[in-house]
Amino acid sequence: MKVSRRETLALIGGGTVLAATGGATAFAMTRTPHAALAPWDQAGRYDDPRLYALSYGLLAPNPHNRQPWEVALDGEDGMVIYRNPDLDLPVTDPFARQLTIGMGCFLDLTRMAAAERGFMMETELFPEGDDGPVARCRLVEGATTDPLFAHVMERRSHKEPFEARTVSAEAAAPLAQYATLYLGGEKAQKLRDIANEAWLIEAATQDAWMESIDFPPNGSKPPASSRSASANLSLIFSPEF
Q1: pTM for the full model?
Q2: Is 36 within 8 Å of 232 (Cβ atoms)?
């Protein structure tokens, strides 16, 4: 069976790593994207904790699903993370703000997955300034697992309208440790207005719409599933596995 580059993590030194997935049963209730899921039966099963962690990091949400991350394995426990500028979005993200957030998501998912194997991920951000790697990471033993990891495979891109009601304090309580929450009031409305205005501007800008056509996810055809579960990562200067 042919596996597309968006479904794999290519090791320059040889070999293939498959992106982690919840498996076909996670989709059986609603849809069965065989083409997207079939290559991933063995995903996430690696002796090297870095590869195990990266197979989950690949699933990070990122703008236009550009997947701009590149990784160099460093020694026995290190990783150097880069963002490929060839995958920039000059119209919708001219300052790479969204892409940088996506890189942060990639790093955090990788960190959570490493913790499942008992490793902390020590991370130095932009160790050589803005023009160098995004992060230099090292795995060390002694991690505490992150409760959010249990929900990694449940993530979906919600494409339906939200209900016009405030999130209850009880429902929001588990999230309070991760962010500042605005459940209502003037600040919440101001943020809502900014988001609405930004969407309307982008929706009315032809060049922004054309960028979605000119720059499909990582230069590839649309994924076989409506959920963007396929992924790609380049490892550079890596040993053979």
Answers
A1: 0.75
A2: no
3-state DSSP assignment of residue 82: strand
In the chain, % of residues over pLDDT 90 = 30
Crossing angle (nearest 10°) for helices 97-116 and 49-57: 140
What residues are paired with 105 via a beta bridge? none
Angle, CA 55 vertex, CA 104 and CA 30 arms, to 5°: 95
pLDDT digits (tens, 9 = 90+) for 47-95: 889 989 988 888 888 888 888 888 888 888 999 999 989 889 999 899 9
16-18 and 78-83 strand pairing: unpaired
CATH architecture of 5-161+221-236: 3-Layer(aba) Sandwich (3.40)
Structure tokens at 136: 């230099």
Range with the largest mean pLDDT of 18-32, 70-84, 104-118, 221-235 = 104-118
Question: Does the pLDDT at position 168 exceed 80?
Answer: yes
- Bridge partner list, 190: none
Going by C-alpha positions, the residue among 33, 108, 91, 102 that lies closest to residue 66 is: 102
User: Around Cβ 234, how many Cβ atoms within 10 Å?
Assistant: 18
Closest Cα partner for 5 from 229, 232, 236?
Answer: 232
Q: Which of 43, 93, 97 is nearest to 233 (CA)?
A: 43
Residue 122, strand partner residues: 138
* Beta strand segments in the chain, E: 8-11, 16-18, 69-74, 78-83, 119-125, 135-141, 233-236
